[in-house]
Specification:
The protein is α/β, with parallel strands linked by helices and about 250 residues long. The chain has a single domain, classed as Rossmann fold (3-Layer(aba) Sandwich), CATH 3.40.50. The chain is built from 8 helices and 7 strands; from the N terminus they run βαβαβαβαβαβαααβ. Helix 1 crosses helix 8, helix 3 packs parallel to helix 4 and helix 4 packs parallel to helix 5. It is globular. It binds nicotinamide-adenine-dinucleotide. The site of nicotinamide-adenine-dinucleotide (NAD) has 29 residues, from helix 1 and helix 6.
């Protein structure tokens, strides 16, 4: 226990799905947790629950695709808890449809959340992370970074970018004691995962329960992603940098 004692963690998308699981787990492991999520999310309630259970958390609202909102939220988090030494770039969204019907505004919107969001948040957090001695960045990628799914050209492209973002940050900043890794889940039983399966099935893509079972056994639990992220966040992973940790029960090993 207490593998994150003395750390300050910021988790984007920390009010729902795997982000929520990570907020709760990181707090139980001793971190002060800043939950960055949309204004209409459950962020405030999640922070209150963590505080009532003896942990330390706060909610900072922002849309990760807005530089102004991100900068304000990171400032608030740092004022409350000090420099952030664990950043989990988890917030993301899904889109599916035939490539030729994908509009420019859909492209810009999803790239804005999944990719630009990671860029904006990391840029806002990194200076004080470095000044305070270093830290660990975990970027949520996906099996979709390396496996194409029909009807998901846009989504897969965003996750490919997240995959490489984690690695490129690692090589540029390792001399300043920054580790940056990606966690890459298979299909998870979260709102995002269920919506993705529903969208794909509606479009005729073969992602039946049997198909998921043959590729990864079952749906991944959000806590399983949070535990992999905890390893990367903690000093247990002190020499793990620029890695892609697949949490997919062999989906990509087949
Ligand atoms: N669910 C899956 O099957 C799956 C698989 C692989 C990777 N992922 C990745 O996990 C991440 C989210 O997945 P989840 O399953 O935990 O989802 P989820 O939908 O349950 O939770 C996502 C959280 O992100 C927040 N969020 C969404 N857009 C935001 C924005 N613009 N600004 C701030 N917060 C925002 C939501 O409010 C929510 O709390 C994404 O990066 C996704 O690509 C999911």
């Amino acid at each position: 226990m207490a593998r994150l004692q003395g750390k300050v963690a910021l988790i984007t998308g920390g009010a729902g799905g795997c982000g929520l699981a990570a907020s709760e787990l990181f707090a139980r492991e001793g971190a002060k947790v800043a939950i960055l999520d949309l204004p209409n999310s459950q962020g405030e309630a999640v922070a209150a629950r963590i505080n009532a259970a003896g942990g330390e958390a706060c909610f900072v609202s922002a849309d990760v695709s807005s530089s102004e909102q991100v900068e304000r939220a990171i400032r608030h988090a740092e004022e409350r808890f000090g420099a952030i030494n664990v950043l989990m770039n988890h917030a993301g969204n899904i889109a599916a449809g035939p490539f030729l019907e994908t509009t420019e505004s859909e492209w810009d919107r999803l790239m804005g959340i999944n990719v630009k969001g990671m860029f904006l948040v990391t840029k806002a957090v990194l200076p004080n992370m470095i000044a305070s001695g270093g830290g660990s960045i975990i970027c949520t990628s996906s099996i979709s970074a390396v496996v194409g799914t029909p009807m998901e050209v846009l989504y897969c492209t965003t996750k490919g970018a997240c995959h490489m973002f984690a690695r490129a940050i690692a090589v540029e900043y390792r001399d300043r004691n920054i580790r940056s890794n990606a966690v890459c889940p298979g299909f998870i039983g979260t709102a995002h995962g269920q919506r993705e399966l529903q969208l794909l099935r509606g479009l005729g893509v073969e992602v039946s329960d049997e198909n998921i079972a043959s590729m990864q056994g079952r749906l991944c639990d959000p806590e399983e992603v949070a535990k992999a992220a905890l390893f990367l966040a903690s000093d247990d992973a002190s020499f793990v940098n620029g890695a892609h940790l697949f949490v997919d029960n062999g989906y990509t090993a087949l």
